[in-house]
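Cont'd.
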Amino acid sequence: MPKSIEILKEGQGELLGWHDPDENRAWIRENKTRGLVDKRMSVEQAVSQFIKDGDYLAIGGFGHIRVPMAVVYEIIRQKRRDLIMAGKTAVHDIDILIGAGCISKVECAYSFGHELRGLSPAGRRAVESGQVKVAAEISNSGYQWRFLAGMMGIPFIPVRNLMGTGTFEKSSGKVIRDPWSGKPVAVLPAAYPDVALFHVPRCDKYGNAQIDGILVEDFELARAARRVIISAEEIIDNDEIRRDPDRTAIPFFLVDAVVEVPFGAHPTLMPYRYFFDEVHIKEWMTMAKTEEGAQEYFDKYVFGVENFDAYLEKIGGLRTLQMLKQIELLQRPMTNAKAPQE
Amino acid sequence: MNQITNQDYSISELLACVASRMLEDNRAVFVGTGLPMIATMLAQRTHAPNILIIFEAGGIGPQVPVLPISVGDSRTFYRAVAASSMHDVMSMAQGGYIDYGFLGAAAIDAYGNLNTTVIGDWEKPKVRLPGSGGANDVGSFTWRSLYIMRNQSTRTFMKKLDFITTPGYLDGPGAREKAGLPADCGPYRVITQFGVYGFDEQTKRLMLLSLHPGITVEDVQANSEFEIIIPEHVPFTEPPTAEEKRKLQEIDPTGMALGK
């Protein structure tokens, strides 16, 4: 048995979001409050206080599901630059942030498509022109396991996929020999995003957050990220959290900011509350075909509105939101939701 | 590009039926949106009522009411046995619980490797595609992966891929295991607008299994840059039955994925 671990292959992708585990423990000890503190604040304050230029950013939800869009719009409004994006099935958020010039680097699991709706106009253009650099490739499970390792405070995690492919070659992983079976096994470095954003249905003022439906990778991501911003459909009383403690997906001491934003995931889907706004998503995808069009979109929906409430008025107000709610609750067919051919 | 003009079914309907028939009852399948979802719902409503549908974002065993648009939307955990997480289902896949997985791709090679990352050079791509998403995971972990590619041509059936996103049999027999991937799994069937393919046991190269009605062996070979293994006798694919067509209509009344 060799005394040192045998490294068989090394991915050429850039190592992003990694820290020595002891350094991260020390950072947490120093910077994360365990006190029961009221963390409510405005979207403006949350973004200005916790998101800096150059941060490594990860966003909860999945694709067009439960994405904290009000916070994403505020990042654009405050003109954050050179963000490094965790492209962990990032779809609408990353396309729109790239279109607004906020992102310069991406680690890509799935980052440049809108699923069945087609390829991402802004994201594609930026990568093909060299304006945004893809620093590394990975897969969905691989990214999510990088967060798992981060959450566990371990330096890396062994996985049995990626090997043999270009996805591995352009990843930040390595292949080592499993000391027990003797077989090759990939190891992926832990990832600790500087900041992670989540939109949840309910949260108390301290940051105890409940999620309805699938968790995707929010459980792991919230525990791996250094700073966590929660936007919530509603702020509920701490007593309600304590009445159903099994529903808490993210406990308060992981959270740095709590923002109440009803419909804060529009135009993405909020399980049991509102459906995708396909009309709006299509409007973005159409306008984003050119840089001028994308700029027009931001002038109209981000810079041209005072706040998220004014944005909701602009996308059709109560009438639209009521329709999206009915579609989500299967009380109305998806006529507004017809997706184009793959 | 409808190759079959005088039939009473569309290519999409044919592909959905062919894929559906490959799924066995009481097995677990990783499902994506579009045709894979339609094929699985059709299997569930015909010969495989107890097929276990699993979505990568965490939906387990749903009774899908209407076609989901995303693999994470609430339809993927409607009346499910569990609304879980990606870590949970990906771990189950890595552990060996998932029998089938569906994949699509921009391009494939003779060993069933897939590209969904870039066209052209990775550093300076001609076209930047979405990336692996869950594809590398499905191709690495499921026992049998099923590919649906409705765009077979010399540009998509390539001798050498610009990028291998997802492993097929890599460069031949034993290569997956040698690389470190889980043993004894890999691509099982490839369904295109021309026919159905499997993989030759000896070489792990693509082999024609059936031709869709109206298609010839010449069509198949003319639309591939690499040589496809053609057995001596190649049957025709069974066209959709009246019952299958009726059920497809129920599943996708607006033609969202079948494209009417």
